[in-house]
Specification:
Elements lengths: L16 H9 L12 H8 L8 H25 L12 H12 L7 H11 L5 H37 L8 H8 L20
Length: about 200
């Protein structure tokens, strides 16, 4: 079957709704103004390499940069993946964060206990200072055991949810987050206490 020759000057066989309305109203179709010359179009598209008002341009650049930093800060606090560092990204890390934030971790009370022991060292009685140091070491050992148990539990849960072949190692990540005060964690906790991820 032979192809029909294409005539570039031929009028299109289908007209638009606007063209139909214009034809029925008896008004001429078209843009209603002459095509601007190349020189006029180039002049309209010209942008100076250096702005006229450098102070205003610098102020606008600072405002834009500040807005971008604030958006990134809020995005990181909210746990949005594109604003998080690489070590915090992915569904497995999100699952680990939610699980850690849902439980009571012994290690998150490390800073208050250390502060209390520092206060006890100001007592003139050496026995109080000794007991304070021993209590701190005992608390430290309990926190380490809690982090180890958390690592094993979390590894099993991640392997069950995502598959043993695709599970990431999150024990160190979990321990570091569990040792932080809840209010100081970044990204901010997205779940309440006891609200464990499914």
């Amino acid at each position: 079957m032979a192809k029909q020759p294409v005539n570039p000057d031929a009028e299109p066989s289908i007209e638009t709704v606007d063209q139909t309305k214009a034809r029925l109203a008896g008004t001429p179709t078209g843009k209603g103004q002459p095509t601007p010359s190349r020189r006029v179009q180039e002049a309209a598209n010209k942008r100076p390499l250096v702005p006229d008002d450098r102070k205003l341009a610098a102020k606008q650049a600072r405002a834009k940069s500040s807005e971008a930093r604030e958006r990134a800060r809020l995005g990181m606090a909210a746990g949005e993946d594109k604003y998080l560092p690489l070590r915090e990204r992915g569904p497995q890390k999100r699952f680990a964060r939610d699980y850690i934030d849902a439980r009571f971790n012994v290690g998150e009370f490390m800073i208050p206990v250390m502060f209390l022991v520092i206060l006890l060292t100001f007592f003139p009685d050496p026995s109080v200072q000794t007991y304070g140091i021993l209590a701190l070491w005992a608390f430290f050992l309990v926190a380490i055991v809690d982090c180890i148990v958390l690592g094993f539990i979390l590894t099993k849960k991640i392997e069950a949810k995502f598959g043993a072949d695709r599970a990431e190692r999150v024990r160190w990540y979990a321990a570091m987050r569990a040792l932080q005060l809840r209010v100081m964690r970044l990204p901010k906790p997205q779940v309440k206490r006891g609200q464990y991820p499914a």
